[in-house]
Amino acid sequence: MTRRLRSLEICAGAGGQALGLERAGFDPVMLVDNDGHSCATLRANRPRWRVLETDLNDFVGTEHEGVAYVDLLSGGLPSAPFSIAGRQQGVADDRDLLRTAIFLTMDVQPRAILLECTPNLLSPRFTSVRDFVESELKHLGYVWDWHILDAQLFGVPQTRRNGLLVAMRSEDFTRFTWPEGDAQATTLGEALRESMASRGWIHADEWARLADQVAPTIIGGSKNHGGADLGPTRSKRCWEAVGINGGSLGDHVPDPHFPLDPKAGRGGLPKLTIDQVRRLQGFPDDWTIAGGKTSAYRQLAQAVPPPLAEALGHQIADALCG
Asked: Fewer CB under 10 Å: which end of the chain, C or N?
């Protein structure tokens, strides 16, 4: 695929999906998000991108030049309406934007659609929601498929299952296949050993051996509750099992003589920094995240990992370019 394609990115967040799609050949004509810090992140990293801070429910694509008839409408939708932590209220949750995205499809009429959300959306509980989506897509002339992909198979050093919807016109969709990825995932220790040792921590190698498995899923970041920590109690226990204190984020990696004592519980384990969370989410180290610690973690925790988005983008681009 040689020519560049055009995309509209909604719920753009920290730009993980947009970055991955850019690598795959898509240039966004506009990126939309309602969070000021997320918009600042996008502008800081890609000053040429046209970023609009607004509620997606108020966004009308055809009111903006160059947005209609893009090659791809893409977005990472809020997972809370369909997640266990979010009480699985689905479309009754005022944070739900799935229907809004489908209505936007009617307005913009893209050649292809890529929407990411929690895998729970594909569970029997939300059959009626998917039926609505499929009915509207069929009416608009699209063919679609739902799928779950784990980002660890695409170079992201954590277990991260993503629920995905891809839709295209039938003539393009016949050429689309889901990316398969590589089963050789990077472990937490391999991904962060160098970072943990960067201030001379004498236990970095010992910690890396303790963390010799793929990291748990980075979760949390809801605006309704929680702060800069690694999620609820069950999630924190998973992180503790791989040598991380998930009670909060650290400002720095361990100093030379920070004690490593797994038997002491969280107090004997290092905390992740924002820089390390960024790396575990597959962002490049130079990708600036605007805002304070809580906002930065929220943006990263909710992001689509760029390597996964890139793999999907290549498959979509190949299908569209024939």
From this structure: C
